[in-house]
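Entry 14. Ran structure prediction on the chain below.
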Amino acid sequence: MLWNRGTLNMNSIFWKLALGLFFFGSVIGSFAELDFGYCERVVNKWADSSSSREEHVNKDKRSLQDLLFFLHVPRTGGRTYFHCFLRKLYDSSEECPRSYDKLHFNPRKEKCKLLATHDDYSLMAKLPRERTSVMTIVRDPVARVLSTYEFSVEVAARFLVHPNISSAMKMSNRIRKSNVISTLDIWPWKYLVPWMREDLFARRDARKVKGVVIIEDDNPYDMEEMLMPLRKYLDAPIAHDIIHNGATFQIAGLTNNSHLSEAHEVRHCVQKFKSLGEPVLQVAKRRLDSMLYVGLTEEHRESASLFANVVGSQVLSQVIPSDATAKIKTLRSEARVTISEPGSDKSNIQNGTSEVALNVTEAKSGNMTVKTLMEVYEGCITHLRKSQGTRRVNSLKRISPANFTRGTRTRVPREVYQQIKTLNNLDVELYKYAKEIFAQEHELVSKKLISTSERSIVDLPGELRNVLGEMGEEKMWKLLPVGLIVILLIVLFLFVNARRRRSSKVKI
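Output, structure tokens:
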């Protein structure tokens, strides 16, 4: 019976691999059949229809609409924004259901104010376009690709707690609780992690067969015995389909997770003929132009400040003070949202998960300001980064001596950096454009803050009069004796000072 179960497991793995090969084979086959003339018509038709749909939307992009759609490009620092900004500004009841992790739902059925997801821009077809504001964060393409590789390895390494890949797959497919989110549910990790997981198990099995393996090179990006080398990762078909130019395709709505039926054909045409990428890039640029907020991963502090002043200030201005008590009650009774990561947590070693609870404790109220929002954000990211760092260290222990740090990226050869730039040529141009938008918005907000500050100083006497006018008669009478005492002290000081001057004159 045990042998039969093992056989069934092996058969299951075989068929999954066969289906995967068939999928990639069919993609490559259809890819080869595409000719330039046909592709040019397909891409231009999509670009024209995308532009015509967006021309009908006439709104002030700087005004927050009823629904905020956070288009989260992977590995741009979006998780810190979600947990440390958005969850401080919005109640759980205001989020679209399971919006951060679950994809392909119709939010028009729900009355929600916040939609945060890795889903691409094509989701806008399901949203009330004229009542939706969009925000995103863009990152330097080379750093984003390296981070994607590192995170794929990190998450896949957590499965090495299991004795074999069959056991790991069985546990990853277990029935999870309704309030538990798995990384394997989230695009693009639902594709990249199983691929890397299979590779890590294969290399571990090969090391067991060889016996003692001596690793001479300490470059984690080229450690063949332990994990898939970066150069091989970059050239894989799945990387070409999901990772390269990923930000442009996501903002254009053309990922392999798109809601548009023509998305796959358009994307494959652009991948085959680089010159056809220009119309897609222009669509992505126009969409960045129309967004409420565009942040930059590399400009962390400036981006956070810009978000607080552009988005946070508008959300806070919509909070009705009378609702503050109700919001606090909702917050305290809110169920904890747990992110389940495959890993090495000793308390969960049997089910192969490491649970990281992210419990919101800061009160949302009508008294919160942009300044206090930034203070809450700074405290939150410190805690979040610490937990992420600990989890990363524990995961990478399973493939030691491979380890990823900021310092190890210097080990990546210059030609590999250039290869990443070439493979992500659209993202390189989109990132340059995003930096221009960011610089303009940052300057605009800075001027606005300076103008507000100067106006506040000029209006200070008038504000003081207003404050005194708003005081009740009873409070004024209480302050009157204090005022009289101060006046008497001033008079006494002047009198004594005058006597001293007269005495000095007489002595001379």
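The chain has a mean pLDDT of 80. Will compare against last week's run tomorrow.
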